[in-house]
Write a structure and sequence with these properties.
alpha+beta; 9 helices; 6 strands; disordered N terminus; disordered C terminus
Amino acid sequence: MSNDDFKFEIPWWLKGLVKAAGVLRSAGLRDRIVIAKHYVTLQTLFPLHLEAVHAMRRLASDALHGPGANDAHFAAEAMHVCTALNKTMGAALDLGTNELHCSIKVFLPPDRIGTLARSEPMDDRPLEMGPENARPLTDGTVWCALMGQNDGRTHWRRYQAFACNDLPDAHRKGKLRCGRPDWQDYYQSVLVYPLLYRSDGTQKGTVFGFLGFDSPRAGAFLGAPNIFDHMENDGWGKYHERLNRCSVFHLGAILADSLSVFMRPYYQRPDGAQVVQAIADSMGEIPRLAHEQQPGSN
């Protein structure tokens, strides 16, 4: 990767600050610039480290034993992970806990997708957990775009992330399919990543789920390109080029890649298939069990 890959267009309103930083640097005040950078990056690094990484590490410890007798603890940790990832992304986007939500989805046989955990607070969203609430992969444009599948309208090329800041507009234009009938009541912007691991000795990733961020606000993911604007001709390349110049995309990708690694023990054990099925069987109990573990819950 060349240095040109890291050249970004600077918004007009930011050019003055960049010039001021250049003046300070030439005046021998580099330390002031570094301190300012530290302050800005700390707003994201603090929750990334102390919230997200620590929560995922605890979940990985539980994975060594698998769900079963420890369902309640696993359920709470899965919810804590979602909440921690949500705080991290919210800090970067300057969004409150009611303006952004996070969920972890996993594949359930045969080719269905179910919700493993959601972030808190859940606001007025229905739980919709467990195998009985799982939906077919082809019911959702988001999943089809990330898996390179046909959603009934478009045969998607496989995308690395699904970003859209105006879902209702895409739906009105017939570009978006969603199996959930009331989705517009809860989110208008989304940023979703595949959760995957690479098999030993190969470069092909095995997708076992998805990490999703969604917001009831349109335009929540500032700087992220709209996937529906990059569907024709060479749009795939341009879309990923724009993603690579978006800090929000990289933050979410770090979270998704890290979560994939921390969750891999569930799929790596000799009894991996049974462990995954045990997760699926306990999914309906996770919200209740996790809630019972919260201090002061009724």
